[in-house]
Write a structure and sequence with these properties.
The protein is an alpha/beta fold. The chain contains 3 helices and 5 strands.
């Protein structure tokens, strides 16, 4: 499974960012191998539409799920329309992905 995680850093030990729309990077992890790709978030500096811009990066990366500390209504709507499940997570990117794999994260409705 491909999981996107909002992060302020650029590796698996970076913290999960509390804001998807304004995070510096979106790290997409392949859960079978823990290989990852780092995408710059165009919404980080956007005046408006940050959540939608970040959601587009997640969708374009082929993620099936996304983890962040918080989500705005517009990004949640985009994920719902795209069939991507959003989860609230914390800790490092690695810890958040493991928590998802261990069924410890709750999906945002």
């Amino acid at each position: 499974m491909r999981v996107a995680v909002a992060s302020s850093g650029d590796d698996l030990d970076a913290p999960v960012d509390m804001r998807l729309g304004r995070c510096a990077n979106i790290i997409v992890v392949e859960t079978d191998t823990m290989n990852f790709e780092v995408y710059s978030n165009p919404g980080a500096l956007a005046g408006t539409g940050a959540g939608v811009a970040a959601a587009q990066v997640v969708a374009d990366a082929g993620a099936e799920a996304v983890i962040a500390g918080n989500f705005g209504i517009n990004s949640l709507r985009a994920f719902s329309n795209g069939g991507i499940t959003a989860y609230i997570g914390s800790g490092t990117v690695r810890q958040a992905v493991q928590a998802l794999l261990d069924d410890e994260l709750e999906a945002v409705e």
